[in-house]
TrEMBL record:
Transmembrane segments: 37-56, 120-141, 190-207, 262-284, 296-317, 329-349, 381-403, 423-445, 457-480
Domain of life: Bacteria
Keywords: Membrane, Transmembrane, Transmembrane helix
Protein name, as recorded: Glycosyltransferase RgtA/B/C/D-like domain-containing protein
Length: 593
C-alpha cells in the first residue's frame, strides 16, 4: 500500500469520535424557560398548603406543639431550648433548629395567628430548597464532561445557556415528584432536613468555582442537618461529597481543591461532630429488616419519586460511559452519592418516606441529565401519559367538589358523607376562582405543549411539573375544608369543649403528643399530668386505647367517666372525658318501692 503524502489534507469527521458525553444539543434547544412563568409555577406550588389550612395529624401538629411549648412565657431558659419537651417527654427526632425557628416566629405572632407565623420559616426553607436545586444543577452541568458534543461547524449549545436550560429541567423534575407535595408543606424537621441537604448539595456542586459561597452553603447545610436531627447523614453526605469534589477531573475554568479547602471541610465536619456531641444529638435509629422488605422499599421509591426516577434510570444508562468512573465526573458522582446515602438511610431507619425526602434534589438532577438524551418517541410517551394522568386527577377533584356542593353525582357525595360524617361543605369564592384559574392555565399549557413550537430540552418536564402543581393547588383550595376536617384534630377538640366548656386547665393521662398539642392549641388549655381533681382543673382526658391500663388508678383518684368522643373520620381514635366523682356516684342506689 502506498503511503500517504506528508502534506495531504486530513479528512474531516462530522461525527464525534469517542466523546464521553451522549448529549447532542443545538443552541436552538436551550432557550430559556420564561422566568415569570417559572416563578408563578413555584409560587403556585409553595404557598397553597401553607396558607389557610389548619394543622394536620400527626407529625405536623406534634412539631407545632414543641414550638408552642418553647414560645410560652417562662420557657425561654437555655435548658428548655436545648431539651424541648411536650407532655413532659423530649423529642425523639432530636431536632432543635426547626423548633427554635418556629418558636421564635410564634413569639412575634398576634393572638390566633401562631400557626401562620410558625410556618413562615418553613416557607423560606421550601423556597431555599427549590433555589438550591436550580443552582446546584446549573453548577454541575457547567462541567465540560456534562456539556454536549461540539459540532464540526459550530452551532452546539453554549455552556451557560445549556446549564441554565438543564437547571430549569431539574427544578421542573423536583416539582413533579409526588412525594414532595405534602411533606414539604408541613412544619416538621423533615422539611428542614430537605432544605439543608439541598444547601449542602449546592455548596459541594459549586466548590470548585466559588470558594466563599460554597463554604457558607456547606457549613450551613451540615450544621443545619446536624441541628435538625440528622448528624450522621450530614457527615456521610459532606465527607463523601468532598471526596468526589477532590478527586473529580478539573475543568479548565475551575480549580482543584487545595489543602486549604480540604482543611476547611475537615473543620466543618469537626464542628458538626462537636455540636452533635455537646447537644447529645447522636442517636442510632437502625431498624433491622428482612430481605422481603426490599419490595416495600421499591414501592415507596416508585411512587414517592415519580416521575423523576424513570428519567434518572434512563440518564444512568445513557451516561454509562462516564458512570464507571463517576467519582471523576461530579455531575454524576455527586447526585449518585446523595441518592445512595439517603436511600440507604431510608432502608436502615424503618422505610420512612420522610427519610427519603432528602434524596429528591439529587434524583431531580439525574432526571435532568436524561433530557438531552431523550428520543422523540420517549418524550411523546411521557407527555401523553402525564397529560392523561394529571387531567384525570384534576377532573376527579372537580367532580368530587361539585358532588360535595350540590349532591350530584350522588355516588361521590355518598362516599364523602360516609368517610367524613357530619362534615358540612362550604363554598369559597376565592378558592373557586383560584382553582378555576389554575385549571384554565393547565389547559393553556396543554395547548402550548401539543402545538407547534421550537424544541427545548426542558419541554418533556413541563407537563409533569404543571400537572403536579395543578393537582396540589386544587387539593388545597377545593378540597381544603374536607382535608382539614379529615386530617386535623379541630373537630375532635370542638366536641370535647362542648362538654368541658371553656377550660384553662385540663388533666391528661395516656394521650399522644399530637393529641396533647391539639388540646393546647385548639382548646387554649394548659395540660397537667393526671392527679386528684382540682377546682381549677376539673376535667381529665385519656386516649381510649389506654383505658384498661389506667382505669384502676383513675378510679382511685376520684374520677368518673363523663363521655367518650370519637374522632369523626377515625373510629379507632377516641378521647374519654372524666369528671370528679360526686356523692351520687359513690352512694348505693335507693331500692325501688
Amino acid at each position: 500500500m502506498q503511503a500517504a503524502a506528508p502534506n495531504a489534507p486530513e479528512l474531516i469527521s462530522f461525527e464525534p469520535v469517542n466523546h464521553p458525553t451522549p448529549a447532542i444539543v443545538a443552541q436552538s434547544a436551550v432557550r430559556r424557560l420564561p422566568r415569570m412563568a417559572l416563578l408563578l409555577l413555584c409560587a403556585a406550588y409553595v404557598l397553597p398548603g401553607f396558607w389557610g389550612r389548619t394543622l394536620w395529624k400527626a407529625q405536623d401538629i406534634e412539631a407545632f406543639g414543641y414550638m408552642l411549648q418553647l414560645a410560652k412565657p417562662g420557657m425561654g431558659d437555655m435548658v428548655s431550648w436545648l431539651k424541648p419537651t411536650l407532655l413532659g417527654s423530649p423529642d425523639s427526632n432530636l431536632a432543635l433548629l426547626p423548633y427554635w425557628l418556629g418558636a421564635t416566629f410564634i413569639r412575634l405572632a398576634p393572638s390566633g395567628f401562631e400557626d401562620t407565623f410558625a410556618r413562615l420559616p418553613f416557607i423560606a426553607m421550601l423556597i431555599t430548597t427549590l433555589a438550591a436545586t436550580w443552582y446546584g444543577v446549573y453548577a454541575l452541568t457547567r462541567h465540560p464532561a456534562a456539556q454536549p458534543v461540539a459540532f464540526a461547524f459550530g452551532g452546539e449549545a453554549k455552556p451557560a445557556d445549556y446549564a441554565r436550560a438543564m437547571a430549569d429541567g431539574g427544578l421542573l423534575a423536583l416539582l413533579a415528584c409526588l412525594g414532595l407535595a405534602q411533606l414539604s408543606h408541613e412544619t416538621t424537621p423533615a422539611l428542614s432536613q430537605l432544605c439543608f441537604a439541598a444547601l449542602l448539595f449546592f455548596g459541594l456542586a459549586t466548590l470548585t468555582r466559588h470558594r466563599l459561597q460554597s463554604a457558607v452553603a456547606i457549613t450551613t447545610g451540615m450544621l443545619g442537618l446536624t441541628l435538625s436531627g440528622a448528624p450522621t447523614l450530614a457527615l456521610w453526605l459532606g465527607i463523601g461529597g468532598s471526596v468526589i469534589c477532590a478527586t473529580a477531573q478539573a475543568a479548565p475554568a475551575q480549580r482543584r481543591l487545595s489543602m486549604l479547602d480540604l482543611g476547611l471541610l475537615a473543620l466543618i465536619c469537626l464542628l458538626c461532630i462537636t455540636t452533635a456531641g455537646a447537644l447529645d444529638l447522636w442517636r442510632w435509629r437502625v431498624v433491622p429488616h428482612r430481605m422481603v422488605d426490599l419490595h416495600v422499599l421499591a414501592k415507596l421509591i416508585a411512587w414517592f419519586t415519580w416521575p423523576a426516577w424513570p428519567l434518572a434510570l434512563w440518564s444512568l444508562w445513557r451516561w454509562r460511559g462516564q458512570l464507571s468512573q463517576g467519582w471523576r465526573y461530579p455531575h454524576l458522582g455527586l447526585p449518585l452519592w446523595f441518592v445512595t446515602v439517603t436511600v440507604g438511610a431510608t432502608w436502615f431507619t424503618g422505610l420512612s418516606d420522610r427519610a427519603l425526602l432528602t434524596s429528591l434534589p439529587a434524583i431531580a438532577t439525574l432526571a435532568a441529565l436524561a433530557l438531552p438524551t431523550l428520543k422523540r418517541s420517549l418524550g411523546a410517551l411521557i407527555d401523553w401519559f402525564t397529560l392523561l394522568f394529571f387531567s384525570v386527577c384534576a377532573l376527579t377533584i372537580w367532580v368530587v367538589w361539585v358532588a360535595m356542593q350540590t349532591g350530584t353525582p350522588a355516588r361521590p357525595a355518598a362516599n364523602v358523607a360516609r368517610l367524613a360524617p357530619e362534615f358540612v361543605p362550604a363554598f369559597s369564592v376565592g378558592a373557586f376562582a383560584l382553582a378555576l384559574a389554575a385549571t384554565v392555565a393547565w389547559a393553556a399549557l396543554v395547548k402550548w405543549r401539543t402545538g407547534y413550537h421550537r424544541a427545548a430540552i426542558w419541554k418533556s418536564l413541563v407537563l409533569p411539573a404543571g400537572g403536579a402543581v395543578l393537582c396540589w393547588l386544587l387539593l388545597t383550595t377545593l378540597w381544603l375544608p374536607l382535608l382539614d376536617y379529615a386530617r386535623s384534630y379541630a373537630p375532635l377538640v370542638q366536641k370535647v369543649t362542648r362538654i368541658t366548656g371553656p377550660s384553662a386547665c385540663l388533666q391528661y393521662a395516656g394521650i399522644s403528643k399530637a393529641q396533647g398539642a391539639a388540646l393546647m392549641y385548639h382548646a387554649q388549655a394548659r395540660l397537667v399530668p393526671m392527679q386528684t381533681p382540682q377546682p381549677d382543673c376539673a376535667w381529665l382526658l385519656m386516649d381510649n386505647v389506654n383505658r384498661s391500663l389506667l382505669s384502676a388508678k383513675i378510679k382511685s383518684l376520684g374520677w368518673v367517666e363523663e363521655a367518650a368522643i370519637k374522632r369523626p373520620t377515625d373510629k379507632s381514635e377516641t378521647l374519654v372525658i372524666f369528671r370528679p366523682a360526686t356523692k351520687s356516684d359513690t352512694s348505693p342506689a335507693t331500692p325501688a318501692r
